[in-house]
Design goal:
The protein has 14 helices and 15 strands. By secondary structure, it is α/β, with parallel strands linked by helices. The strands form three sheets. Strands 5-2-1-6-7-8-9 form a seven-stranded parallel beta sheet, with helices on both faces. Helix 7 crosses helix 12. The longest helix has 21 residues. It is globular.
């Protein structure tokens, strides 16, 4: 039996169900090494500006181990936030045939990458970075060389989509080292909950005082400068649509600014952060989901996957990593130029110009997302492991 070690920062609501799927549907012997315990106990999320503990099980159905983190300021926002001196010894003791890293930009992982015996157990990397906003400064050149050096330690790479593929090749990864393993969420949980979520959404819409006959534009996420919720608010105002409300779900540093700028708008609504069990209902209330992020921080946008499971049409900016993979323009949504409020306004008006077409876009989203599941992601992982074992 092939033994696989996975090293990742902390239990994540998108990855933990994938580990369960791998454990239940393959012959792999899997063990996950976590470097921090965020998400399994109440911890402050600095961007959401509140304490969070996910309300779905993140540590059931697979083998795992928490590697002690001695950082004085634990977290994933700085290189020093994950400081795990016993990581190498603990993975060595597991004696895997291969090791998959999800991310690398932390002190503990740099040390591990440099010290690990890759001849005994090759390294696989899974990441989702992109360069949709290209940095052409001398710092960008140096960073490219550094990343290429880090990547030289890995045997294979699991790329999640088109933009991520281009990122890897830009940093010197050879096409033969790249295996497609699409970004996915727990589709089954969202699809199973869809019928109930649609009923719950009707009641929730009433609780929020959104007019029953209104269509709903949804933004769900962190209210910060990277996600650009203020851009969406401005575009919504400019679109001046009849019988269409805008709903912001979440929290963050821009919350006060958003509410202040929306204070004179009767059809702009706010709902607090929704935990995982409430997310199917959150997307079910929407007639379209919009993610207007700017920069390279929106490496994929897994909220788009979630929304598509609930048959939402999609509008994303040109800097959202999943755009070229999940958004087929004029089929299930639109892509606008990042930070271009006029272009976003155009897309919103176009989407609501034909409500029958908008519904068809949602149906197409539901169809597309079937091919972005844990099944396809696992097939990619197994292909990379088969290449290693040859």
């Amino acid at each position: 039996m092939l033994k696989l070690a996975i090293i990742t920062s902390h239990p994540i609501q998108y990855y933990a169900p994938w580990f369960v799927y791998i454990n239940q549907n393959t012959d792999l012997k899997l063990k996950v090494f976590y470097l921090w315990d965020f998400g399994v106990k109440k911890t402050v999320d600095r961007e959401f500006k509140k304490s969070i503990k996910w309300d779905i099980p993140l540590l059931e159905g697979y083998d795992y181990e928490f590697v002690p983190n001695i950082s004085k300021n634990p977290g994933t926002k700085t290189i020093g936030g994950l400081k795990n001196p016993s990581l190498l010894a603990r993975v060595t003791n597991y004696n895997p045939n291969a090791v998959m890293l999800i991310g690398y930009n932390y002190g503990s992982l740099y040390r591990f990458i440099l010290q690990w015996n890759t001849r005994k157990a090759p390294l696989i990397f899974r990441g989702d970075s992109h360069l949709l906003k290209r940095c052409k400064s001398w710092k960008g050149i140096l960073r490219r060389r550094f990343i290429s050096l880090v990547y030289s330690r890995f045997a294979y790479f699991l790329y999640v989509g088109e933009a991520n593929y281009k990122y890897f090749t830009y940093h010197g990864v050879k096409p033969k080292q790249l295996v497609f393993s699409p970004h996915a969420i727990d589709n089954q949980r969202f699809l199973t909950a869809a019928d109930t979520a649609k009923i719950e959404a009707i009641s929730w819409k009433k609780e929020l005082d959104i007019p029953a006959n209104h269509k709903v534009i949804l933004f769900a996420g962190k209210f910060n400068s990277k996600k650009r919720p203020l851009d969406l608010l401005q575009a919504y105002k400019k679109a001046n649509l009849k019988d269409v409300s805008l709903l912001f779900v979440g929290s963050g540093e821009l919350e006060n600014d958003l509410k202040k700028q929306a204070s004179n708008e009767s059809n702009v609504f706010f709902a607090p952060f929704q935990n995982q069990q409430s997310m199917p209902r959150t997307y079910a209330i929407a007639d379209i989901f919009i993610l207007p992020s700017y920069g390279n921080s929106e490496t994929w946008g897994l909220a788009v996957n979630e929304a598509m499971c609930l048959s939402c049409p999609i509008i994303v900016s040109s800097h959202v990593g999943c755009g070229k993979d999940l958004v087929q323009e004029y089929q299930n949504g639109l892509i606008f130029e990042a930070r271009n409020i006029s272009d976003l306004t155009r897309c919103i008006k176009l989407a609501f110009s034909n409500l029958k077409q908008l519904k068809q876009w949602g149906e197409k989203s539901h169809e597309i997302i079937q091919n972005y599941s844990y099944k396809q992601a696992t097939e990619g992982l197994q292909k990379a492991l088969n290449l290693i074992s040859k």
